[in-house]
């Protein structure tokens, strides 16, 4: 008896979401996304009061990435299960003046992921056409819908989305307080046994270079001559290295598994 056909994912390899999210280089933007999220006091409060993030920052980041990858590359049942887990966590995270299920917080968190993916791709992989960037943004609304944020909650076009980001970064809704800075320290230098602080300096430099200037200053992230040099060298060399890699090395494990499992052609 023939084996049942593998369940297809929500996105195909031809989609902008698949082509962009499959790049391992996007992981270099994870710190940027997290620091942008924590700049919202509601997000920082939820993380500080409902998680062990400071002591297990890397573990929690990897677990979150697994769920995000399942939404992009998993079969439909796997993607829906990941969405249910995320939504279940959001329902439990609430406190004085905030709730993780608040559409404004959900939009900001997802906005940081969308924007960080686009910014990191262009910095370390290569340029994106305006059409690809627009398509990626529109496709992201499908994931948002699975996370209880309907398409109508998003700015309609990428240009509108960019104005929303500029308004958030220029307004008073974001505020990097002491709690956010304490959490950011765990992002920039996860407490891993045997790993000296100096080992994180290159990653700190890349995160600093990717961050919007206002947040870089608010967090007090180093941005001196050494960091500028590291970032400039990465911008110059990483796209060349990525372009020279074989295809299988330019896929995150979840994308490779989807291909091997026969979910996509």
Description of the structure:
With 265 residues, this protein is mainly alpha-helical. It has one domain. 63% of the residues lie in helices and 2% in strands. It is built from 13 helices and two strands, in the order αααααββαααααααα. The chain has a two-stranded antiparallel ribbon with strand order 1-2. β1 (94-95) and β2 (98-99) form a beta hairpin. α2 (30-38) packs antiparallel against α6 and α10 (201-210) packs across α12 (225-244). The two termini are 22 Å apart. The mean pLDDT is 90.
What is the fold's blueprint, element by element?
Blueprint: H1 16-21, H2 30-38, H3 41-50, H4 57-73, H5 76-92, E1 94-95, E2 98-99, H6 103-124, H7 130-146, H8 158-170, H9 178-188, H10 201-210, H11 213-219, H12 225-244, H13 253-260
Antiparallel strand pairs: 1-2
Helix pairs in contact: 2-6, 2-9, 4-5, 4-13, 6-7, 10-12
Number of helices: 13
Q: What can be said about the biggest beta sheet?
A: 2 strands, antiparallel
Helix/strand-derived category reads mainly alpha
Secondary structure: number of strands = 2
Give the overall silhouette: globular
Using only CA atoms, what is the Rg? 18 Å
Beta fraction: under 5%
The CA-CA distance between the termini, in Å, is 22 Å
Helical content band? 55-70%
What value does the average pLDDT take?
90
Low-confidence stretches: none
* Sequence of strands across the biggest β-sheet: 1-2
Count of separate structural domains: 1
Order of helices and strands: HHHHHEEHHHHHHHH
């Amino acid at each position: 008896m023939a084996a049942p056909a593998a369940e297809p994912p929500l996105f195909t390899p031809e989609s902008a979401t698949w082509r962009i999210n499959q790049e391992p280089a996007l992981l270099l933007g994870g710190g940027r996304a997290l620091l942008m999220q924590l700049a919202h006091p509601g997000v920082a409060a939820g993380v500080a009061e409902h998680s062990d993030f400071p002591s297990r920052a890397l573990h929690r980041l990897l677990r979150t990435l697994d769920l995000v990858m399942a939404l992009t590359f998993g079969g439909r049942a796997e993607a829906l299960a990941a969405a249910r887990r995320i939504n279940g966590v959001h329902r439990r995270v609430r406190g004085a003046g905030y709730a993780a299920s608040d559409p404004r917080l959900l939009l900001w968190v997802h906005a940081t992921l969308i924007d960080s993916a686009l910014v990191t791709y262009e910095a370390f992989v290569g340029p994106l056409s305006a059409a690809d960037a627009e398509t990626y943004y529109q496709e992201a609304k499908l994931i948002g819908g699975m996370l209880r944020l309907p398409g109508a909650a998003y700015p309609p076009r990428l240009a509108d989305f960019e104005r929303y980001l500029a308004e958030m970064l220029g307004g008073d809704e974001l505020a990097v307080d002491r709690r956010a800075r304490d959490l950011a320290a765990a992002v920039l230098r996860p407490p891993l046994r045997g790993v000296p602080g100096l080992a994180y300096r290159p990653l700190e430099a890349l995160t600093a270079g990717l961050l919007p200037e206002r947040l870089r200053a608010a967090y007090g992230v180093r941005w001196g001559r050494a960091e500028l040099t590291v970032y400039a060298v990465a911008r110059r060399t990483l796209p060349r290295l990525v372009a020279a890699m074989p295809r299988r090395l330019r896929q995150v494990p979840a994308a490779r598994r989807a291909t091997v499992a026969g979910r996509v052609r």
